Every structure is written in C-alpha cells, then in structure tokens.
Amino acid sequence: MIGKITTGKDFRGIVNYLLEPTKTPKIIDSNILSGNRKDIIWELSLCAELNSRCKNPVKHISLSFAPTDGYLFDQTVLDITDAIIEGLGYNNNQLMVVKHGRIDPGHDRTHNHDHVHILLNMVGYDGQRVKDSFDKRRLEKILREQEKLHGLTQVPSSDQRKYKTPTTGQVQRLMREMDEIESGERKEKPKAPYMSLIQSGIDLASHDKPSLKVFLARLQRLSIDPKFRLENGEVEGISYRMQDFKVRGCKLHNSSLPKLIEHRVELDSERDLIAIEMVDGGEELELAPELEVNWSQTNIRDYVPEKMKRRLDEFFGENEVEEISPADKAVELEKPEESKKFQPQKNQDWEWSID
C-alpha cells in the first residue's frame, strides 16, 4: 500500500471530492450522523469550531493498494483503516471512509488497483486537536504491518527506497504515450521521466567520486543543468533542471549539497567555487575526453517503478540484455575504452528518447 496524508482548512472541498458521483463512491465506514453532502460538511465544521486555535482541522489519508492485491473485500479494507485510525490516535474523532471505483474520469487511465480515502476531523468530540507529529512515519509503519497481516504486496517505506519515484503525472504521461504508439497515433519513442533521468545522470556523473568541477561538467554533457542557491555569498544548496523540469537536490538520493560532498564528490574550495560561479553564469565547463560520460553507460529502466517496467515489457518485450548493477557500472566505467560493454544492443529497440 502507498499512503498519503494531507491537511486542510475547509471540509467542503474534500467532502465534495470524496462523494463526487463520477467516482462511484461507496461509504464503507462513518460515524457522521448526516447523510447528504451539505449536512456532512455542516456537522464536521460544527465540531471543528470546538477548538478555535485549530486552523487546519481537515485530515485526509488516501490509500492505494498494489495491482497484485486484486479486488479487496470491504471488511479487509475496514480492518486496515481501523488500524490506521487507532494507530494515529483518532478514536475520538469524526471520520468517514470512502472507497472509489476503478473507473475515474478525473484520471487519464482507468485505475488497475483499489483505492480508498479516510477523512478525519482533527478536532475531537472533546475539543482537543489530535497531535499529528510524525504522522507520515507512523502511517508507513502501520501500512507495513497491515501488509504482512493481510498477505498484501510488500511496499518499501520511504526510508528504505534508494530513489525517488517519478511523479504521478510523469507516470501517466508515459503510459499515455505508449498507448498512443500502440494505437498508431504516435510514432516517436516514449520519453523517459525526468526524475529518473536526473537521478541516473547524477549517479553516472559521480560514479568515481570526481571533483565537484568534473561532476558539474559531466552533468552539462548529459543536458542536466545544475543550479546553486547562494545566500550572503555562501553556497547553501543545489537543484537540477532538465528541460522545463526542476527538482531540488534534497529530493533525490545523496544529491543535496551536503550529501554530494559527503558521498559523491571531492571538494576543493578554491577550484570548485570558480566552477560554481561559471555554471551559475551559464558557462560550459571544460572536460577532458577521458572523463566524458554518455547516456549509453546507464540503464534508465533501473530507475523507474516496477509498474512502469512491467508495462515496458508488455509493450516492447522483455529485456534480453543482462542487467548491470550500479556497483558493476562503476567498475565497468573504470575499464579501458576498448573493453567497455555499455552499448545498449537489443535494448535500443525499446529505449526511451532523451531530449
């Protein structure tokens, strides 16, 4: 299961969303007395007014089950949501659990998995606001326990995942492009998600723990534009841009400025500060030929979710080239030029286009 938590000020928007008829909503649990949208909103708001200091009384938890979990019985979903509500301390609060259908006009594609929403009033019947510090961490722990208890697909928690997954929009765009190719509406190859491209590019550019200058020059050769955040003349952070997509370093694996220095690059303050100034000024850094890197030296499929890999296998056929692990890649990159084996060969048949 994947769980997301959001908070908000107004119950109207979330109630209207959860009970939107086109989403085929099914209320499988509720302790709210009212039965229509208007009265449900009024009842939730009335309870929230018991605590005027709580400015964000809306708590919304969405759960997405894995496609391999199939269609779940309502009772199984209720057991899981009960565990979440109790584990997060909302036993004395208004709640509503709504299951949405798989056909959703608001999305590009039909869902291939069950998903459910939990609406909670953070202000309890006693007027006290539930303390929600570390809710996301506690939710992940509960989800992992429930997956084991109910025999569901095991999903790594955020602290166990090495790489950030592409955004929902990027995944939907890739799926849509492959559908268009399959139907003949599109002839171009699908484009790889920028999040995956940037992460794989950072790994490739730093494979041998080079100087920061070499690292930055390699990123430029991969069409990844590093941007530094300067405050009072000091370098405080780094972000990465590819085309019109931008992501902060802290959102990627070991790619924030402190993590780069600790794990990926060697820093020479005098030399590298000049390189930073040149990069921020839009200048291209020089790079010796023997230090060059290119996209054929990494497999972007290693950086996408299993769902996307399966779709690629269905569409293009299974990958017939032996996968190379990141550690093996680092060893391969250090071999003499004539012994490198990074040409994609049969992978080229399904390889994404890279702008």
Q: Would you write up a description of this structure?
A:
The protein has two domains: 2-150, BirA Bifunctional Protein, domain 2; 170-349, no CATH class. It has eleven helices and eight strands. The chain has helices spanning 11-18, 37-48, 74-87, 135-150, 168-183, 194-205, 212-221, 257-264, 269-280, 306-316, 326-333, and strands spanning 2-8, 26-30, 58-64, 95-100, 115-121, 225-231, 234-242, 245-248. Strands 1-3-5-4-2 form a five-stranded antiparallel β-sheet, with helices on both faces. It has a three-stranded antiparallel β-sheet with strand order 6-7-8. A hairpin with a 2-residue loop joins strand 7 (234-242) and strand 8 (245-248). The longest helix has 16 residues, at 135-150.
Structural class: alpha+beta
Characterize the largest beta sheet: strand count, sense, and whether it forms a barrel.
Answer: 5 strands, antiparallel
Number of DSSP E strands: 8
What's the average pLDDT?
A: 81
Low-confidence stretches: 318-351
Give the distance, in angstroms, between the N- and C-terminal Cα atoms. 33 Å
Give the number of helices: 11
Which descriptor suits the 3D outline?
Answer: globular
Rg result: 24 Å
What is the beta-strand fraction? Answer: 5-15%
| Widest sheet: strand ordering | 1-3-5-4-2
Topology as a string of helices (H) and strands (E):
EHEHEHEEHHHHEEEHHHH
Fraction of helical residues: 25-40%
Summed up, the domain count is: 2
